[in-house]
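User: Fold this, then the next.

Assistant: Folding the first:
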Amino acid sequence: MVGGKGTRLRPLTVNTPKPMLPTAGHPFLTHLLARIKAAGITHVVLGTSFKAEVFEEYFGDGSEMGLEIEYVVEDQPLGTGGGIRNVYDKLRHDTAIVFNGDVLSGADLNSILDTHREKDADLTMHLVRVANPRAFGCVPTDEDGRVSEFLEKTEDPPTDQINAGCYVFKKELIEQIPAGRAVSVERETFPQLLEEGKRVFGHVDASYWRDMGTPSDFVRGSADLVRGIAYSPLLEGKTGESLVDASAGVRDGVLLLGGTVVGRGTEIGAGCRVDNTVIFDGVTIEPGAVIENSIISSGARIGANAHISGCIIGEGAQVGARCELNAGMRVFPGVVIPDSGIRFSSDQ
C-alpha cells in the first residue's frame, strides 16, 4: 500500500511520493520489492493514489526486478482497509501478504508465511517487540500466539508487541471488507474479525522495524541501511560508513560519516563534514560546510562554511555561505537564503 501523501516529510513529498524518496541509494520502495523477490514472491500489486503515475513510470511491469507488478489507483481516500479492498480484483492467490509501503523492516517474510500456514490462520499479523510501546497500538496474544484484542495507545500497555504493518490475509477476508468507502483495518476490520471468531494470529519477533514517516526516522532508516544495521538485498557487499554514487565528486579532506548517502552528480567541496545525512542527486556543497542529521534534496546548493543540523532542504533551494540552520528547519523548494541570511550565533 503506497498511496499516502507523506505530509510529515514535506517539502520532500511535494513532488515525490514518500515510498519513492531516495533512501540508501535507491527509491525506498525498491528495498521492499527486493526483499519480496528474495522471499520468492513474484506477483506484486501496488495500491497507489498520490502521484500514482510516478510508480508505473519507474517500475513499469516489474520485469527488470524479476517481478510482475500491477497497479490499482485509489481515486478517493479509502483508509487502510479500503485500500486493501480496492486491489482485491488483482489478487491471484488464496493467500495475500499486505505491506505498509513506508515501513522499513528486517522481518523474515517466509517465517511470517510459515506461521500463517502452521496456525491455519485467517489473518496473521507481524508484531514486533519495542522498548517503548506507549507510542503505538498494542496487540496482545495468548500462549498459542492467537490475538486477543487490539488496543489504542495507552500509558500502561499490557504488552510490548505492536502492529508492524505487515499482514497475511486469506483472500476471502479481503472480499468481505466493504468496497467503495473508507475503512480502517485497525479500528474496524481487525476488531470485527475477532468478534466473528476468526483465527487471527501474531507472528512475533524483535526484528528491525522503523516507520519512515518523519524526517528523523527517514534519515536514521537510510543510515541504518547503509551501515548494514537494516538489511536490504540491494546493498549486499556495499555497506559501511557512507554510500557514494560513482558519478559524485568528493574533494580532498571531506569526511562522510554515520551512514551518509551521496547521490548522482553531487559535488562536495574540500573540508566538508557530512554526518548521518541523505544527499539527493545533483547537489552542490561548497567547501567547509558542516551538515548533520539532515536531508538535502536534488539540485540544492549549500554555501561555503554553512552549518546545517536536523533540517530538510527542498529541491533547488540555495543556502548561502555561513548560514546556520538548526532544529528541524524546512527550506522549501526554490527558496534562496542569502549569505549569512540565517544565523544562531553572532556574526564575527
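Now the next one, as you asked:
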Amino acid sequence: MLRVKAICLARCVHLAASWGKLADKYLSKRTKKSRTSLLNYRTSRNNNSKIMERKELPGILVSEIGGPFGVLESHVEFLKMHFNLITMKEFQKSKEELREKIKSVFVFEGRPLVDRELLESLPDLRVIGNSGVGVNHLDLKLISSFGVKITNTPHAVSDSTADIGMALMLASARRLVEGCDIAMSPQTKHFCVDWLGVEVTRATLGIIGMGNIGYKVAKRAKAFDMNILYHNRNRRKEEEQVVGATYCKTIEELLQRSDFVMLVVNLTSETHKLIGKKELGLMKPTAILINICRGAVVDQDALAEALQNGIIKAAALDVTDPEPLPRDHQLLQLKNVIITPHIGTATVQALRMMTEEAVENILAVLNDRPIPSEVYPN
C-alpha cells in the first residue's frame, strides 16, 4: 500500500514538473513577445516623439543655405536644434503650406529682403533676427507696423570690427599695401630709403561714435599709447576714464585735433554723409580717415577730391556705398586709399557668435522672455 502511494506521489511530482516546464516555455514565449511588443511600442513612441518634436519646432525663414549669400553650412546644425529651417526657395514653392509655420526670419548679409509683400505673406511672423549691428537695410517702421519685433547682434561683432579698424589704421599709416606692391613688383631693383610712413604710437586718434565697437577701438588704441579723443551723442564718463579718452562736444573739434579719424556710427538720416567736403577740410593735411561703419556715412565724391588734392593724407575703408564700388569709381584709382570688402566681422568666431546671439534674441521673443538686443524704430 505504501509502495503504491509512493509511486502515485512520484507520478504527480513528475506531472507537475512537466506542466511547470510547459508553462515556463509558454510564458517565456509570451514574455518575449510582450517584451518585443513593448520595445516596438517604445521605439515607435520615441520616433513619433521625435517627429512631433521636429514638427513643433518653430519655422524660421532663411534666404538659402550655402553659396555666396546663404547661411553658412557650418551653422545649419546649430540652427536646426532650435528651428525648422525653411529657405526662400522652399517657401515660394509651398507658400500656402508653410506660411503659418514661419514664426521668424533670420536675416544674414541683408537677405532675405523683408518687404511688405513678405510681411503680408507671413501671418504668424513674430520676429526678424538680424545678424549684425547695422539695420539700415530693414524698414523698421514698416516691420513694426505688422507687430513684428526686430533684433540685432551688437555684442558679437565688437571685437572683430575693432580689430579691422586697428588693422586699417596701421596699414594706412605704414603704407602696407603700397609697400607690398613694391616688394612684389618684378620691376623692383632696390628699396628706397625715403619711402616713409607715420607712426601710430603716441599719435592722436579721434573716434566718432563711442558705442561698443568704438570703446573696443579705444581700448586697443590705449595699448599704443595714443591720445584718444571721442565724440558721441552722450558722454561716456566711465569708459573715458578706463581708456583715458577726452570727450569732444563737437565733431569739428575732434577733426581739427586728430591724426587719425575713425568712424564707428550707425547709419541714420542724421549720419548720412556725416563726413563731407566741409568736414574733410577741417582735418589736418597729414590726417588719415578710417571708416568701419557704413559707406554712406562719407560723401565719397568729396573724399576722392580731398585725397587727390592733398586735403587729407589717406583713407582706409572697410565699407563703401555701394558695395562693391563700380569698377570705374575714382576711389579705386588712387594709391592713397585702402579698400577692403566689408570684412569687419568676417572671422570664424564672429560669425558663429552672431548666429548664436541672433538665435538667443529670436527664442526670447518666441518664448515671451526679455529680449537681449531689440531694435526700435526711430
